[in-house]
Amino acid sequence: MKERWLPVGLIAGGLFLVNVIARLVVRLGAGSDDDKQITIGLWALFAVGAVMIPVAFWYARRHPMIRVVGDLGIAVVVACLLAVLVGPFVSGVSPFSSGVGLVFRQFFYFVGLSAIGAVLGLLALMTMGMDHKSQSWKRYIERTDSKPRRIVKR
To answer: Which of 117, 119, 120 is nearest to 52 (CA)?
Structure first.
């Protein structure tokens, strides 16, 4: 059980940490300048997507694709919920202070860019033939491509 959920929790924690760092940068560096806040927020979302590229690459090398999609999906949704519902307290505001619409937009931006990053990581892995399925096909070909044993006639 620990081997399955510990990596998922670490991934979710890492994604949430990226969001917390961005919120601290906004709080300490941007002040009340809306343009700086938006710019830092967009860079933070791109950072979350960029973090997902190597994470998906690493995770899919070791596990079948259905598990990768499920585990990374859970990690992203948990990190997103933490970022949307707990993250605003780091900035000194409440989650719904700007309205429910902003909460939903943040949720979909976070999940969307995380999914794009994960897909890019998975595509890179598949292109290199290092994913679980490609390795299975490679082992199958090696096993069936060998010459049959020679039978000596008597």
So the answer is: 117
